[in-house]
Design a protein that fits this description.
The complex is a heterodimer of chains A (158) and B (287).
Chain A (H helix, E strand, L loop, with lengths): L3 E7 L2 E7 L5 H8 L18 E4 L2 E4 L12 E3 L12 H8 L9 H14 L5 H7 L11 H16 L1
Parallel strand pairs in A: 1-5
Antiparallel strand pairs in A: 1-2, 3-4, 3-5
Chain B lengths: L6 E4 L3 H10 L4 E3 L5 H6 L7 E4 L9 E4 L2 E5 L4 H6 L1 H6 L1 H8 L4 H6 L2 H7 L6 H8 L2 E6 L2 E6 L4 E3 L2 E2 L6 E8 L5 E8 L9 E10 L2 E9 L7 E2 L1 H7 L6 H14 L10 H24 L1
Parallel strand pairs in B: 1-3, 2-3
Antiparallel strand pairs in B: 4-5, 5-10, 6-7, 6-10, 8-9, 11-12, 12-13, 13-14
Helix pairs in contact in B: 9-10, 10-11
Chain lengths: 158, 287
């Protein structure tokens, strides 16, 4: 099972890794590239803590082989912040207390980032449906919904 | 969790994928991977060789000709949901796809993977039965088209021959007097159905000229509730008839007992889902 060379763009920078075909993207991100923002939760594509953005879509990186990401544009939570500081989505989660322990937050942020491009002005119902692939065990979701709404409002004003 | 070791090839065409299946014993196709990879992590499935068919353009896309819609096997669930062609001409597929897994999984999960995997919990097989779909299979000896009815043989067992690939799905476009209904009971987002029921009716005024009722996750494979269909065909549907239909559906069910419920509960829920889907389909046929 020879290792394969895989190249992709991660948060705007080209990266080259050498991986076994069985290596999952979440492990490459965390252990090879030392980006530990995306979390390993359920490992069975239910919880969404490992959500990253690949070629403009939200994907659970625990259920994607790194070799499958070859040639892709990958964005992880580390790529959200810019020179001005927190991304609008991150600021909204902070302002609305959309997190408690924070474990699910990187996935929530990355899903919100993409969801609000798919649907810039969502209703509460649409937010619940659009965010349904991300589980949170602390907040009871209400403040997460508020954070997504606030982010939507601030993104439209930005 | 990491799957055990395997070799990987990204196929460039269907012919390349078939040649690769032939050349590598026990190789498996990697479609969306959201059923296969979790199974491989848990060692429920093992394969020394995965053939990735995600890059094959000829397996993607949705088109319509002469009242028949052709859907490439590697079309994702979210592509089904976003398709204006399907929203207009085959709403059942859109409604079913909306209730598959969650947004992230629907970006990767494909209709072909869902149909060919053979898991009785998958949603599309029963939808295929209700739509009377045809499946286009390509193998070393060429291409054949088979009806979905008869394709689902048991748990992880379909009519797919060795070295064959499901390349496309053909479904009839909805026409005047035809209605679609879909009901699925699940415990939470991302879970498989406790029971699901896609229904297609063809109405002649108040009379049901024809009906197909599919059932999800209440037998070793997706099934048609044929006895229940026979009760309805040629009749006007009223409460007394629906009571008979419910009994017949409970008879038809043979669910596996698991954390979603026992046999009695699941069979009863299948009957309720079917009842609601029948009423919904008749209502939609009028629209």
């Amino acid at each position: 099972m020879a290792k394969q060379a895989v190249s992709f763009n991660l948060n705007g920078k080209a990266v080259d890794v050498l991986v076994e075909p069985r290596e999952l993207l979440i492990h490459t991100l965390r252990e090879n590239l030392n980006l530990t923002g995306a979390h390993i939760g359920c490992e069975s594509s239910h919880c969404g803590a490992c959500t990253v953005d690949i070629d403009g879509e939200s994907v659970k990186s625990c259920t994607l082989l790194t070799v499958q990401a070859a040639g892709s544009e990958v964005k992880s939570v580390e790529g959200l912040t810019n020179a001005d500081g927190l991304h609008v989505v991150q600021q909204a989660f902070k302002d609305e207390h959309g997190l408690q322990c924070g474990f699910c937050t990187p996935g929530m942020l990355m899903r919100t980032y993409r969801f609000l491009q798919e649907n810039p002005n969502p209703s509460d119902e649409e937010i619940r449906w659009g965010m349904s692939g991300n589980l949170c065990r602390c907040t009871g979701y209400q403040n997460i919904i508020e954070a997504v709404k606030t982010a939507a409002k601030n993104l439209q004003q930005a | 969790m990491i799957p055990s070791s395997f070799d990987y090839h990204k196929a460039t065409s269907v012919a390349d994928a078939i040649a690769c299946l032939q050349a590598n014993e026990d190789s498996k196709l990697l479609a969306g991977g959201h059923s296969l990879l979790p199974m491989m992590k848990l060692r429920f499935a093992e394969s020394p060789f995965l053939i990735d068919i995600n890059g094959i353009d000829e397996l993607k896309g949705i088109s319509m000709e002469n009242g028949t819609i052709t859907i490439g096997a590697m079309t994702t669930e979210n592509e089904l949901i976003r398709s204006e062609l399907l929203q207009q001409h085959c709403p059942l597929l859109v409604e079913a796809a909306k209730l598959v897994a969650d947004p992230q999984v629907r970006n990767k999960g494909t209709i072909g993977g869902d149909v060919a995997h053979g898991d009785p919990g998958n949603d599309h097989p029963a939808v295929m039965l209700a739509l009377d779909a045809e499946l286009v299979l390509q193998g070393p000896d060429g291409t054949r088209t088979v009806p979905a009815n008869g394709f689902f043989l048991g748990t992880y067992w379909t009519g797919l021959e060795e070295h064959e690939i499901l390349v496309a799905i053909k479904v009839p476009a909805i026409k005047s007097g035809v209605g679609h209904g879909y009901q699925k009971l699940k415990r939470k987002t991302g879970d498989y159905a406790v029971a699901g029921a896609p229904v297609v009716v063809e109405m002649d005024g108040d009379i049901v000229r024809d009906i197909r009722i599919g059932l999800t996750n209440v037998a070793p494979m997706a099934i048609r509730a044929e006895a229940a269909e026979d009760l309805i065909r040629g009749k006007r549907v009223d409460d007394a008839l629906l009571k008979e239909v419910e009994k017949s559906i409970i008879e038809a069910c043979d669910p596996a007992v698991d954390l979603r419920g026992d046999e009695e509960y699941k069979s009863h829920m299948a009957a309720i889902m079917a009842r609601r889907a029948i009423i919904q389909a008749i209502e939609n046929a009028k629209g």
